[in-house]
Design a protein that fits this description.
134 residues, mainly alpha, elongated
């Protein structure tokens, strides 16, 4: 079984290179057109795959160096996911929705207690159902 390992590794690299080449935009292929790279990978599996992985694709780095993945505001071609609490557009949309919701609720059920309508209790000042006051 161990003697088939190099064959499986080569097959995995060829499949990965073919899928990577096929899903790459044509303007990101360097040195040759995409179809030429695919033909090279199929005809010369080892050399074509290694050639594509090393020199065939225009791999852009983020402007600050490193591997990207920080915040989604960099100048890279793909934006990364940003958590909603860090996304200014989402926060603005939430603020707008809250403002709309507050406009429709003016004067409804306002009894002057600051919105505390749950379990006001008896006249003795104790809250109903509070186990600490019994």
């Amino acid at each position: 079984m161990l003697r088939y390992l190099p064959l499986f590794v080569l097959l995995g690299v060829v499949i990965y290179a073919l899928i990577d080449c096929a899903t790459t935009k044509k303007e990101d292929a360097k040195h040759l057109p995409k179809i030429a790279w695919i033909i090279l990978i199929v005809l010369f599996p080892l050399l074509g795959s290694i050639g594509w992985l090393i020199a065939g694709r225009n791999r852009r780095r983020s402007p600050g160096g490193g591997s990207g993945g920080g915040g989604g505001t960099g100048g890279g071609r793909r934006s990364t996911w940003v958590a909603p609490d860090d996304n200014p557009e989402f926060l603005k949309k939430l603020g707008d929705e809250n403002a709309k919701g507050d406009e429709g609720k003016t004067g409804e059920g306002d009894d002057g207690d600051g919105g505390n309508d749950e379990g006001d209790g008896d006249a003795d000042g104790k809250r109903d159902g509070d186990p600490r006051t019994k």
